[in-house]
Amino acid sequence: MNVAAKAKNIKKKEDTAFGRLLADQGFLNIPKPGDVLHGRILFISKNLVRIDVPSYRTGVVRGGELIDTSGDVRGLAIGDEVEATVIDLENENGEVELSFKYAGERRSWEKAAELMRQGTVMPAKIVEANKGGLTVKIANLVGFIPVSQLSPENYPRVAGGDKQKIFEKLRSFVGKTLNVKVIDVNEAAQKFIVSEKAVWEDAQRSVISNYKIGDTIEGEVTALADFGAFLKFGGTPEAEASALEGLIHISEIAWQRIDHPKDVLKIGDKVKAQIIGLEGSKIFLSIKNLIDDPWKRVHERYQVGSLVKGKILKANPFGFFVELDPEIHGLAHISELSDKPVRDLDEVAKIGDTIEWRIVSIEPDHHRLGLSLKTVKEEAKETPDT
User: Fold this and answer.
1) What's the distance, Cα to Cα, between the start and end of the chain in Å?
2) DSSP state letter for 217
3) For the chain, which residues make up each domain, given as ranges?
4) Distance CA 283, CA 57 (A)
5) Mean pLDDT to the nearest integer, 213-224
């Protein structure tokens, strides 16, 4: 190695050692990629901004990195103080490569977190829909409203849960604006979840406080599902926001067993119901609580051992459900259908058949009535027609 090369190598080592010494003593704060730096603008052109980073060196923002997703970078001038994210400590010109974009994204996430902390209600425009929910843009971030976070008014209640019909209902929201609250922010996971339901719940709490368990209300059936019916009540046409919606579980619609709420109710029906539960913004209702329990007087109409005519309403693996009258239904267990093992219920009777049964048990408190067909057949054999 020649003298000049040795001298250059020694000088480089000295500079490096000196730099480390300065850094160790706190005189030189060397950034790393991802750090956010603050500086003053030295130069601006269409595709480039040059920034003086104090106690370090000149940085440059160029090309696509000039775009600030937070929307805060506009109308910059020489001398303005700005912040930018380090992309590379040294580019081909020996300058620090910076980005407004990443610094803007960080501000957007910080703003989203602040919105969640404050519980701010804000409008969100729906930009896209998928089968899981709606995509929105807030604070220059892409957010998501899961289907479960839509208000009852906008929740896609589709008979049978048809996914394609649910998607079509969700697509109808694209371009519309909904009021939402931020409920989950996680920059690392790129998760930004907002809720329309949370806004609705807040609005309902003060209205719900006017009601208590045991109150009787009157409302309109707004939707039917496999598990129950929804009833809208309260409010006025002038104050629609004060209206509430409660759920009548299928077991609370009627005293008799029903397969689906549509067997008894239809959308638009005006009915009375009793409030039986209040949990936050959830309201649980009962229609049957306002109707006398027919099982309290079942012994006035039926007695164990008597013969009755009954229509088979439904068959399942353990027997037949039989309608004795519109209010009282009984069960004929498979063991009571024949004195021989029954492998196929259709061999005994079919849905819709009206036949004679023997009542073998009555349990008013449990709303159960047991029926037997085999005893009727056995008696028929013992007393043949003469």
Assistant:
1) 132
2) E
3) 3-104, 119-201, 210-290, 295-382
4) 64
5) 93
Query: Higher confidence at residue 157 or residue 244?
Result: 244
- Cβ of 343: how many Cβ atoms within 10 Å? 7
Kindly report, residue by residue over 9-29, the tens digit of the pLDDT. 434 444 444 444 444 444 456
Q: Tell how strand 216-225 and strand 270-279 pair up.
A: antiparallel
Instruction: Please provide the CATH number assigned to the domain covering 295-382.
Output: 2.40.50.140
Mean pLDDT of 167-175: 91
In this structure, the strands spanning 228-233 and 244-249 are antiparallel
CA distance 274 to 216: 4
Residue 187 has pLDDT above 90, yes or no: no
Report the C-alpha gap between 231 and 213 in whole angstroms. Answer: 16
Q: Are the CB atoms for 148 and 134 separated by under 8 Å?
A: no
CB contact burial 194-213 (16+ within 10 A = b; e otherwise): bbbbbbbbeebeebbeebee
Residues near 11 by beta carbon (within 8 Å), at least 6 away in sequence: none
Query: What is the average pLDDT across 231-251?
Result: 78
Residues with Cβ within 8 Å of residue 377, at least 6 apart in sequence: 338, 339
Check for a shared fold between 119-201 and 210-290. yes
Q: Which two tokens stand for residue 290?
A: 């306002």
The phi and psi torsions of 307 (rounded to 5 degrees) equal -95, 140
